[in-house]
Specification:
By secondary structure, the protein is an all-alpha fold. Helix content is 61%, strand content 0%. It has one domain. It has 17 helices and no strands. The longest helix is centred in the first third of the chain and has 29 residues. It comes from Streptomyces camponoticapitis.
Length: 386
Amino acid sequence: MVSSLSQERPQASAGAGAGMRDPFFDNAKYLAIVLVAVGHSWEPLPGSGRLVEALYSFVYAFHMPVFIVIAGYFSRGFDMSPKRVWRLVTGILVPYLVFEVAYTLFQRAVETPGFPLTPADPYWILWFLPALFLWRITTPFWQLVRWPVPVSLAVAVLASMSTGIGDDLQLMRVLQFLPFFVLGLRLRPEHFAYLRRTRVRVAALPVALVALLVAYWSVPRMSTSWFFRSYGARQLDEPVWAGAAMTLILFAAALVLGACFLAWVPRRRLWMTALGAGTLYGYLLHGFFIRGARFLGGYDDPFLEIPAGRIAVTLAAALLVTALCTPPVRRVFRYVVEPRMEWARAAGSGPETPTYAQPSETYTERRQRELQGPANRPGRPDRGGR
């Protein structure tokens, strides 16, 4: 999902030529989108039980933070140049508006005839698109501030303690998830390479097991609403200080579990690698199927109340989102998910000229490299398309 959402070129893997996709990130995005779809498929399960709730809490503790960290990592070269702003609008805002209308019409058709169209209040899963837009346009600021991650974490803490943040553009989520995006901006390739070490991969297994046990213990003691970052502490009937504490605890938990997840993501090219380039399609489209199944009574079958039924739902969600990431689906929906909209560009602006800024570069680093001139850019082609 991130490559499509962020509209940036994935970093070339070690030893690969410039401009080649790194299989690691595509594999990570595919596995993460499977977790997203599976988590959404668990939500409507009747009487899901403590085990499913524990798995749900475990997955939600890190799957969106992983997405957001990677999105931040691939936003490192973003500036406010006309070319990049155009890509931001056509790659994020336009699909958001299209799918906001589509999901509104869908909701009206299957459940609520009078369901309002409210672009300022994103429909369910669509919150991530305007959030990414807002995070990205602030990238130049986070590249300049001295302590970006602590500052963004302070913003998230204050948001969780606030009572005056409205629902427009899911601003509460935008602010509480902000530290993960800023962290991604600060990461370097060596940070991901560190996760490849054997001792890290070995340690990831017992850490994940302990986290599962903690999730199981926490089910009757903690609301899963904390993981959504949609509410402040007062809205969850908790004291204000709990908002600050939970923000810090969940941030630490997401970092640890996200590292465990990434440590076991395959680094080589596999069957799933090509699907990782189409995760935006799976993300935007799977909601129609899951919400449709819920609205049309698909979750009312008593079979879903037994373990075999819950396993069947999990496998069905994984297969569904996998199918939605395949090239045939991408070809059909490309014009609404990744519109180029050259017809809307001002006359004389010319075609988009791609750049080869790597995601490991900050904006300042890229500008310094560009000022050196082509002769001092080893391994970088002077022209070419994405």
